[in-house]
Amino acid sequence: MSTSTSPSPSPPKRMRIRNLLPQLTIGRYTPGPLNSLTDVPGVLVHTQSIILPANATHKEVNTGVTTILPRRGWFHTGCYAGYFRFNGSGEMTGSHWLDETGLLNSPIVITNSFSVGPCYTGVYEYAIREYRNEKGLCDWFLLPVIAETCDLFLNDIGAMVVEASHVVHGIENASSDAVKEGNTGGGTGMMCQGFKGGTGSSSRQITGRVYNESSHTQEPITYTVGALVQANYGQMRDLRIGGFPIGLQFVEEASAEATRKREALEAQKLKKDGSIIIVLATDMPLHPVQCQRLAKRATVGLARTGGWGGNSSGDIFLAFSTAAEIPRDAPSTWNPTVSRSVQVVEDTSLNALFEASADCVEEAILNALCMAEDMTGPRGVEVKALDLERVRGMMERYL
After folding, report:
1. Sign of CA dihedral 352, 38, 304, 292
2. Is 315 in the active site?
3. Mean pLDDT in the chain?
4. Is 332 a catalytic residue?
5. How far apart are CA 249 and CA 236, in angstroms?
6. Considering 36, 202, 313, 357, which one is annotated as catalytic?
């Protein structure tokens, strides 16, 4: 007598929100070719996950590092940049210098809350190795930009496994490929609105006009804005897709056991409600105050998905423009000196950028949710990924 065993079902395929719901409209602007932060010319990204089973020295480890380079030559030529603190229970180093000068001369590294230190060191280790002078000394100034969200529910955060070498590796290997999403990079162990969260990205293209001095005409030009999020915030009940209350439907349809587990986890999370880091990049010529204004618009995309800036949430948003290349070592003189000119967009023509950036952030968060996978952390804490088939079924009534 023979018996046959049916193969265990393969896990459902993960896909981005546009593939899951092709009829869903997220804004009226066209995505870039990759629909990713790296659609902005010159911007490079690397994600690295650190996933380790429990052993004698630590519990389950699910964490990582995301490294963003504004340009390959970030050390020698800065970008104009600005940031916005929607809620400040979090960290973004280097922000005082951004306030002071509006200049970004650093990679942007995103990790977990306990790993800001080694990531900070990692930027220095790379810069010291590459840019010390002929005498072997450092004769330059650098304030690394490191941001964090808290992954302690799915990661033994006290194991402190992130090392400076991970950042050095990230800087060396950052590329213009589409950003990996879901359980990757600094987002590896993050949760978002009651589901597994993590890293997500999106982009939009905007048609503008630029004045041609030789012909005295305005010529069309295409600009790109892109977003990368590390999403680790919120409650299931508040999740909205395309404005529709999908999270509330999940709550109402959940079994008693699932509800008990969710409520227990949410009660724990109220002690430190995750956070979200959002990075916006554009090749549109902006000055630092315009970058600050752009960073504020990330709040709109966050709110559309159900985020509202809880008391213990670190919601910090950074925006930078790659258009101007500001030399690190401009000649130093006592007297005020004009040595260059830069183009900037008229404030009165920023509305398309503001609108498109909100769309990017909304879609990036949804991509993080849709691409994330189930994960189990210390103490047997299990967080499920968003059930895409159920989402597709729920959305049929709206689309």
Report:
1. negative
2. yes
3. 93
4. no
5. 9
6. 313
